[in-house]
Amino acid sequence: MSEMHASAMPPRLDHEFFGEELRPHLGAVLLKSKLLEPEQLDAALDEQRKNNRRLGEILVERGWLFPEDISRALASQYGLDYVDIRYSSVDARAASMLDPEVGQRLCAIPVRFLPDGGLLIAVADPTSAGLAEIRATLAGRVGFAVAEASDVRQAWRALTSGYRR
């Protein structure tokens, strides 16, 4: 390999380093779960640096992962449960505890009451500053889980469709 060609290649990222951090990077979680190859992660991270887009969006757009894979990895990364609200029903009474406009804006929906009387809130983005807003809005005990954004939006549409006629 010529000197010029070798320097033109981006340096290989040390993905093991990321896996040892207090909260591993999403890419490290995906590599550890064997959902992604290191070369795919490198290419997606390169695109992320160039275009300032979210890693998960890039991976889904390229067809390397499904949205559910990203949601499950985010849940793992943040130490939260994953909830598939397509197959586990949303308690309408629990959902009514959050203003639908706030829930839709933050892509979050109360799923059910917890044994301690709090609410389990499914969120699409556990990194969002909206979690603090939800805590403040509900002023009670809340727990969070991760769900796919499209499922949260669909659940809100189903719950609010009767109100908008």
3D architecture notes:
The structure is a single chain. The chain is of the alpha/beta class. The protein folds into 2 domains: 3-77, no CATH class; 81-163, 2-Layer Sandwich (GMP Synthetase, Chain A, domain 3). The chain is built from 10 helices and 4 strands, in the order H-H-H-H-H-H-E-H-H-E-E-H-E-H. A 4-stranded mixed β-sheet has the order 1-4-3-2. Residues 1-12 have low confidence and may be disordered.
**Beta-strand percent range:** 5-15%
Stretches where pLDDT falls below 50 for ≥5 residues? Answer: 1-12
Biggest beta-sheet profile: 4 strands, mixed
CATH superfamily of the largest domain: Type II secretion system, protein E, N-terminal domain
Number of strands: 4
**CATH architecture title of the largest domain:** 2-Layer Sandwich
User: Percent range for helical residues?
Assistant: 40-55%
Gyration radius, in Å = 19 Å
Return the domain count. 2
CA distance, first residue to last residue: 67 Å
State the helix count.
10
* Chain-averaged pLDDT: 85
CATH level 1 class label of the largest domain: Alpha Beta
SSE topology string = HHHHHHEHHEEHEH
Write out the strand line-up for the largest beta sheet, numbering strands in chain order.
Answer: 1-4-3-2
Write the layout of secondary structure elements.
Layout: H1 3-8, H2 15-19, H3 26-32, H4 38-51, H5 55-61, H6 67-77, E1 81-82, H7 92-95, H8 100-106, E2 108-113, E3 119-123, H9 130-138, E4 142-146, H10 149-160
Parallel strand pairs: 1-4, 3-4
Antiparallel strand pairs: 2-3
